[in-house]
TrEMBL record:
Keyword annotations: DNA-binding
PANTHER family: HTH-TYPE TRANSCRIPTIONAL REPRESSOR SCO4008, TRANSCRIPTIONAL REPRESSOR
Protein name, per record: Transcriptional regulator, TetR family
Molecular-function GO terms, alphabetical: DNA binding
InterPro entries: Homeodomain-like_sf, HTH-type_TetR-like_transc_reg, HTH_TetR, NicS_C, Tet_transcr_reg_TetR-rel_C_sf
Domain HTH tetR-type: 18-78
Length: 220
């Protein structure tokens, strides 16, 4: 029996199941970000991928299963990027600045991620409950911040008594809002918040605000 999987489309045969799966998730992520869970259509996703509709159901079970996989992938990408920063080896103040700068840049460059998170919040986060992997990958982010914070407290550069989860919340809030509300702010106040100058200013201010929140006064 041939190991080549027939997608059911003329001229389309697939020898790379993992590559096909990634391709489906990438296309589906864009569709979900643009149209939401209810508005996205498997037919449209299949048409834009190397896969057939039958293959999508084979890999993901149903549209909701595909949506959960897209959520997992969105969070995996940002957490893998954080891991590559190797901030644990840096002095705490430098590690903090690098982490906040990375988060700002990542969110700005991955608008689909922001839209996916907004959509899941509309659904009260209930689809996340289907994925133990999502909790595990994001717990790593809190552990990373906790490690930086503990090191900074030990070295006497960070204020004591702060919660790593709340630190993550504040960083996320500033960086998330930069994308989620950019269009409305630009229209309401007549300033292009997405311009290069605005983004450079907002990025530096975000880093500075988090820095001042954590650092002892003598290090500000």
């Amino acid at each position: 029996m041939s190991s080549i999987e027939n997608t059911g489309r003329p001229g389309r045969r697939q020898q790379d199941p993992e590559g096909t799966r990634r391709n489906i998730i990438e296309v589906a992520s864009t569709e979900f970000a643009l149209n939401g869970l209810a508005g996205a259509r498997i037919d449209e996703i299949a048409e834009k991928t190397r896969a057939s509709k039958r293959m999508i159901y084979y890999y993901f079970g149903d549209k909701e299963g595909l949506y959960v996989s897209a959520l997992e992938n969105a969070y995996r990408v940002v957490r893998e990027g954080e891991a590559e920063l190797d901030i644990e080896s840096l002095p705490p103040l430098e590690g903090l600045r690098r982490l906040v700068g990375f988060t700002f840049d990542h969110h700005s460059e991955h608008e689909d991620f922001i839209r996916m998170v907004m959509i899941e919040n509309i659904h009260s986060g209930r689809y996340m409950e289907r994925s133990p992997a999502l909790r595990a990958v994001n717990e790593a982010a809190i552990a990373r911040i906790g490690s930086i914070y503990a090191k900074g407290v030990e070295e006497g550069v960070f204020r004591e008594g702060l919660d790593p989860l709340e630190i993550h919340w504040q960083i996320s809030a500033l960086c998330f809002f930069n994308v989620s509300n950019r269009a409305t702010f630009s229209h309401l106040f007549g300033r292009d918040m997405g311009s290069a100058d605005s983004q450079a200013s907002l990025r530096q201010n975000t880093i500075d605000m988090v820095f001042r929140y954590l650092a002892k006064p003598e290090y500000i």
